[in-house]
């Protein structure tokens, strides 16, 4: 899977129903733009293997290069799901050797309290630069590019 094509939709789960088979679910999210549905199956990577539940705030990432049915509300296949805290923001993308996002949207300043792990939850004891990163943060500077000290980084090796 190419993580570079993933687009996030952030919202609160309002309904979870059974999908087309016993190994899939359909999540309905309330977002700032209305309701969006996500199919979650065995290929969906749920960060920290969290149990999804109604009322949970999440970021669901879908592959923008895949076809989607032209229905309302929109329905996507979730590739990655990350549970979010009340004020959490996330950025998933490639960060270069200077920890600058490939699209220039975010500059990371690693702090002593930044928790860095791999996608399967193991400690990551190297420099996270030059990798696809899922970055959790709350605030940024107003500089260009915005800078932040993330609370957590998940490295997709």
Would you mind describing this structure in some detail?
By secondary structure, this protein is an all-beta fold. Helices cover 0% and strands 46% of the residues. The protein has no helices and 12 strands. The chain has a 5-stranded mixed beta barrel. A 4-stranded mixed beta sheet has the order 7-10-12-9, with no helix packed on it. Strands 8-11 form a two-stranded parallel sheet. Strand 1 (6-18) and strand 2 form a beta hairpin. The chain is globular. The protein starts with 5 loop residues before the first strand and ends with a strand. 22% of the residues are buried.
What is the topological layout?
Blueprint: E1 6-18, E2 25-31, E3 34-40, E4 45-46, E5 57-63, E6 75-83, E7 89-95, E8 107-108, E9 115-118, E10 131-137, E11 147-148, E12 152-156
Structural class by sheet pairing and helices = mainly beta
Radius of gyration: 16 Å
The biggest beta sheet reads: 5 strands, mixed, barrel
The largest sheet has its strands arranged as: 1-2-3-6-5
Gross morphology is: globular
Percentage of residues in DSSP E strands: over 45%
Put simply, the count of helices is 0
Residue share in helices? under 10%
Summarize the structure.
The protein has strands spanning 6-18, 25-31, 34-40, 45-46, 57-63, 75-83, 89-95, 107-108, 115-118, 131-137, 147-148, 152-156. It has 157 residues and is mainly beta. The two termini are 12 Å apart.
Which short descriptors sum up this protein?
single chain, 157 residues, mainly beta, 12 strands, 0% helix
């Amino acid at each position: 899977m190419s993580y570079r094509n993933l687009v996030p939709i952030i919202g609160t789960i309002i309904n979870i129903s059974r999908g087309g088979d016993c190994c899939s679910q359909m999540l309905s999210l309330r977002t700032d733009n209305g309701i969006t549905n996500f199919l979650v199956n065995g290929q969906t990577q749920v960060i920290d293997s969290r149990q999804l539940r109604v009322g949970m705030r999440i970021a669901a990432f879908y592959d923008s290069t895949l076809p989607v049915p032209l229905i309302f509300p929109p329905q996507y296949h979730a590739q990655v799901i990350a549970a979010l805290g009340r004020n959490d923001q996330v950025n998933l993308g490639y960060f270069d050797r200077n920890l600058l996002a490939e699209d220039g949207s975010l500059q990371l300043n690693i702090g002593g309290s930044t928790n860095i792990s791999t996608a399967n939850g193991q400690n990551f004891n190297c420099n996270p630069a030059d990798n696809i990163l899922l970055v959790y943060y709350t605030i940024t500077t107003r500089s260009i590019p915005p800078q932040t000290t993330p609370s957590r980084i998940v490295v997709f090796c």
